[in-house]
Amino acid sequence: MQRARKLAYDPDLCADLNMVRRALRSCRGKFAALAVWLAATITSADAQGSDSLSSSLFAEDASALWPLRLSVELVRVGSASRTLHSNTIEVPDGQATTFAHTEQTPSGERTFTLNAVARHHAAGAVEIEYDLRVLESRYGRIRLGQYVLHRLGLGTTPPLGASRLRVSRADIVSTKDSVHSVAFAIDGDLYEIRLTASPTRG
User: Fold this and answer.
1) What DSSP letter does each residue of 49-76 carry, written as one string?
2) Per-residue pLDDT tens digits for 163-199
3) Where are the beta strands (DSSP E) in 40-186?
4) Cα–Cα distance for residue pair 65/7, rounded to 1 Å
């Protein structure tokens, strides 16, 4: 009966094995660090206020789509209802568009800014993503005589103070042959933003 042969101790072989183990541990750490870095790069991209919250159903073929007709109307609502601003343009699917209007008031001025993105939607509807902001600046302190001359159009315009945000609205809506209205009030003054969108084809 043969005795089991013992493996001879080889210091060079042991050194090589230890070196392989250390290399594997080092690579494993590097791969883990690389994975963490890639995840952080993908998920922590800087977000901006203009970033869209929705995407077109036809994003892969947006260039082949017909343009969209987008209309925006700003109306002062009340006993003396009047249109302050109206605009209709044709835009490509998914293109951001900005509408702006400044209204003079007895106490200063109000600036209305609407950012809108129109996209083709299912069943012939159009999706509108909008962001409305209204800033107001009031006149600084002036004498009564200066104010009267200003109101009569005979004096210089009083200096305006710092602007402050009075209205902020944002939403994503779907329309088809209809008007989407956004109503709001500032110090008792009533306003409406009326949005319509439709494909230019047909």
Assistant:
1) TT--S---TTGGGGGGSPPEEEEEEEEE
2) 999 999 999 999 988 999 999 999 999 999 999 999 8
3) 68-77, 82-91, 96-105, 108-120, 126-138, 164-175, 180-186
4) 76
Tell me the per-residue pLDDT of 101-136, one tens digit each, with 9 for 90 and over.
Answer: 999 998 899 999 999 999 998 888 999 999 999 999
CA 12, CA 201: separation in Å to the nearest integer? 79
- Token pair, residue 74, equals 């700003």
Nearest residue to 198 via CA among 114, 118, 97, 87: 118
Nearest 5 degrees, angle CA 114-CA 59-CA 198?
50
C-alpha–C-alpha distance, residues 126 and 117, integer Å: 10
Number of helices (H) and strands (E) in the chain: give both, helices first.
2, 8
pTM of the model: 0.65
Tokens of 202: 């047909």
